[in-house]
Structures are given as structure tokens and as C-alpha cells.
Amino acid sequence: MRAPIAGQRYTTAAIALHWAIAALIFVGFPLGIYMHDLPLSPVKLRLYSYHKWIGITVLAFAIARLAWRAAHRPPPPVPMPAWQARAAAAGHLLMYVLMFAVPLTGWTMSSALGFKVVWLGVLPLPDLVAKDKALGEVLKVVHQTLSLSLAAVVALHLVAALEHQFVRRDGLMKRMLPLAHKDRKP
Amino acid sequence: MTDRIAHALRAGTLALCGALVASAGAAEYGQVVPEKSEIAFESQQMGVAVPGRFPKFTAEMSFDPARPEAGQGRIEIDLGSIDAGSPDANTEVKRKPWLDVAGFPKATFVASRFRALGGGRYEAAGKLTIKGRSQDVVAPFTFAAEGAQGRFQGTLKIKRLAFMVGEGTWSDTDTVADDVSVRFRLVANARK
To answer: How is chain B classified by DSSP, letter by letter?
Structure first.
């Protein structure tokens, strides 16, 4: 009895999207924290734009991921205690929700504060709400809170993945690693 | 004594002008109605159009669409009232590298040469002064009479760096573009 090897790994598209979003979050999140306290300068304007471009790109990739998820069944879970399986499922669901919610609240906040989002400086996106400073201030707090939540869940996700890889050595991480061997052919 | 003569002469000239205008049979538009008028601007930051406004300004003009060449106009903008789109930008844009509002509280446009382009379109040429620097500019506009009022509407494209607006690190036009368009709508009453 041998499960098909291909079925135990995520597809190339899923792996590419996972790591692209991971990289964008690892840049976009600290950038958001850093740029916020800068005095107004050309550098600040630049960083804000880059941060928005990163966020919108995450949103686009998140849509692609959801589409992938709708069309594919992820590899079956590896054996683990039930509470861990439940925690993993909840964590993954939360990350999916936040991959959408963080960019969307940022975009809405930008609209409310009167700044159009122009992706990569070339593609103007519609304003999600009309200019409303009070709403913008509320959304700022929401965006910050959700971003910190996302960072926290990502940190847990990372710890769990490393635990599987280096403590349990169950090969779970290999399913998502881009350069992992497709396993030896018999 | 000479004052009185000068005064009489000025009154005489005004009366003569008035008679000429009356004989031309067309309306001359003068007093600008602030509530119906607006001066706004748009800059580009990282490719993003950022709208702004100058809520406080005064405008004096005399313009007769039938005799545009006799037209005159003067607009004074109170730069301290600028709304550049966000509180941060409002603070920054009044500082020395930008408009230096403390040193140069007003921007002025003195239009001295008006020209008809046909089809209700005109242009006003004159001197625009911002931050103590003057440039000759030409503002195209349309004019439409609406009852006892006339509406002047147009857009003036300027280069901010020609007026040293945004000096030092801000002179980087990749972040904030050099081009700024100033959109105006002035509604003036016809003189009786």
C-alpha cells in the first residue's frame, strides 16, 4: 500500500503562492510598523506606497489561493493528537481570513483618509469608501490590530512547522517546501 | 490739491469707461461670489493623484466677454488656509521647504491680458507669484453667463519647482511630481 507521492505534497502553484505570500508578509508587516512613526518625508511617502503595493499583492495572491483551495484538496493531515489537528485547522482558517482582512482594512483605511490606492503606481484601485476621517481613524486601529494578530498566528504557524520538522521529524514541512525532493522513486 | 485733481481725473476716467461699457451693450462681470467659487489643486504622489483646496482667497476682476482684451483680474490666495488632503500634509506644506507660509502668506495671480479663443473659451495671461517667485503663465478658461452671474472655469498647469515649492529632499519628483494642476471656478456678478 503506497499513497501516491504527488498527493502528499501541495501542488507547485500552491507552494509558490504560499511562499510568495509569506515573503510579502515578512516584508510588509515590519515595513508597516517602521514607516508609521517616520516624520513626513519623500522616504515615508515611498514606503507607504510600497506597503500598499505589497498588501494589494497579498490580496491578489490570497484570492488565487482561495481559488486553488476550491479546486484542490490539500494533502491529507499527518497523524497528530486531535487538539493539535484542531488548532492547526483553526490557525489555517484564521490566516486565510486575515490574508483578506488585513489588506482590505488597509485599503479601506486609505480610502477613508482620502488616499487613492494605485497598485505599483500604475493601476488605480477604486475607493472602497468615501473620505471620512473619523472612519479612517477607526480603521487604522482595526488594521493595526488585525496585522498584529496575523503576525502572531504566523509566528505560531512557523513554530508548529519547525516542531514537525526538527522535533517530530515527520516530514510534514516537506509538503510545502519548494525545493524538497519529490521523494525517491522506488 | 493735486490729490483732488487726481481724484477727479480718476472719477472721470471711470465714468468714461463705464459709458463705453454701457455703449457696448454687454455685461461686465466684476464682484466674485466666494460661496459659489472654488480654487482646488491636484498633485501626484508616487503616481497617486492627491486632491487639495484653497478655501480662502479673494478675487477682483472686470471682464466683459464681448471685449475680453480689456479684461483684468487679480486673485489672492491665503495659503495658510490650504487643505492638502491630510493633517500631516497640511502641516508639512506650510513649512519652509514647501510654501513657507510664514514668509509668504499669499500667492497671487495678476491677469493682465485676456484673449478670446472662440466657442466660449478664453485665456488669461499674467503673473503668478508663489513664495516670492513670479512666473508668466497662461490660464485657459471657459466663460458662461448664467443669469446675472458669469462663471469662469479652467485649469492652470504649473511646475512646483519653478516656484521652489518643495525644496531639498522634496525636490525629488519621483515621489512628488513637479506638475501641479490648479483648477478654478469663479462666479462673478454682472455689474449694473
So the answer is: -HHHHHHHHHHHHHHHHHHHHHHHT---EEEE-GGG-EEEEEEEETTEEEEEE---EEEEEEB-TTSGGG-EEEEEEEGGG-B-SSHHHHHHHTSTTTT-TTT--EEEEEEEEEEEEETTEEEEEEEEEETTEEEEEEEEEEEEEETTEEEEEEEEEEEGGGGT-S-GGGG-TTTB-SEEEEEEEEEEEEP-
ipTM: 0.76
Q: What is the mean pLDDT of chain B?
A: 89
Contacts of B175 in chain A (CB under 8 A): 42, 45-46
Chain B residues with CB under 8 Å of A43 CB are 169
Chain A interface residues facing chain B, Cβ-Cβ under 8 Å? 40-43, 45-46, 48-49, 113-118, 121-122, 124
Is pLDDT above 90 for A2?
Answer: no
What are the tens digits of pLDDT across the range A47-98?
A: 999 999 999 999 999 999 999 999 998 888 888 899 999 999 999 999 999 9
B168 touching A, CB under 8 A? Answer: no
Taking domain A5-175, whether its CATH number is 1.20.950 is answered by yes
Q: Which CATH superfamily is domain B27-190 in?
A: Lipid/polyisoprenoid-binding, YceI-like (2.40.128.110)
Using a CB-CB cut-off of 8 Å, the residues of chain B touching A113 are 86
The shortest C-alpha distance from A119 to chain B (Å) reads 9
- Residues of chain B neighbouring A38 (CB-CB closer than 8 A): none
Q: Would you kindly state where each structural domain of chain B is located, as residue ranges?
A: 27-190
Across the interface, whether the CB atoms of A121 and B92 are under 8 A apart is answered no
Digit-coded pLDDT (tens) for B110-129 = 999 999 999 999 999 999 99
How many CB pairs below 8 Å do chains A and B form together? 44
Percent of chain A with pLDDT over 90: 80
Give me the mean pLDDT over the B46-66 stretch: 93
Give the domain ranges of chain A: 5-175
Residue of A nearest to B89 (CA): A40
pLDDT of B21 > 90? The answer is: no
